[in-house]
Amino acid sequence: MSRSLTEAKVLRKLDIPDFRHLTKDKVVSFVSMLPQMDPEVAKRALEQFPAFAETNLAIVSCLKDSLGTIVSGNAGNMAEFNARCHEALSALEAELKREDLTDEGRKMVIDGIMGIIGAIGQKDSENKEFLSDLFSGLLRYSAIALVILAAPLGLKLSRSMGG
Predict the structure, then answer these.
(1) pLDDT by residue (tens digit) across 74-130?
(2) Any idea what DSSP says for residue 163?
């Protein structure tokens, strides 16, 4: 892999005079450039940005809070959807109890019940996939942040151990 980004190039791309001016909104851009940086450049950058760990933790915390809001809203939407489906099922069950319902009418009501049951299952699957994607995204970002935060410690540890 080519490590072509020098300190000057990284600073120019981030539009900052030095790494002490690295802000929370530029951290994501900085992180995306790490694989193309010389390890020494990355290490010097991280040393100049002492709040990097705190910034990453703050970003993860904001993501967690946002996910909490999304999950709460999603739970409300799912509860509303399920309530409407159960109302429709109750109405269809009442239709089935009618004595004057024809065989054709009975078949239509049963088809309606089966359609609602299928919609509930489909919505549940979509909801689980949605939540899984949200949590996977948070997990990926957290893992990347952890690796980036641990990288300078690993470099210092290997040097102190004579590596």
Answers:
(1) 999 999 999 999 999 999 999 999 999 999 999 999 999 999 999 999 999 999 998
(2) -
Contact 96, 106 (CB under 8 A): yes
Contacts for 24 with CB less than 8 Å, ≥ 6 apart: 55, 58, 59
Distance (Å, whole) CA 22 – CA 47: 12
Q: What sections of the chain are H helices per DSSP? A: 7-14, 24-33, 39-48, 52-96, 103-160
Write the single-letter amino acid at 71.
Answer: V
CA distances to 33, 34, 35, 59, 160 from 4, in Å: 10, 11, 10, 28, 27
Other beta carbons within 10 angstroms of residue 152's beta carbon come to 18
Query: Dihedrals φ, ψ of 3, to 5°?
Result: -110, 80
User: Whole-prediction pTM value?
Assistant: 0.54
CA distances from 107 to 1, 4, 133 (A): 65, 70, 39
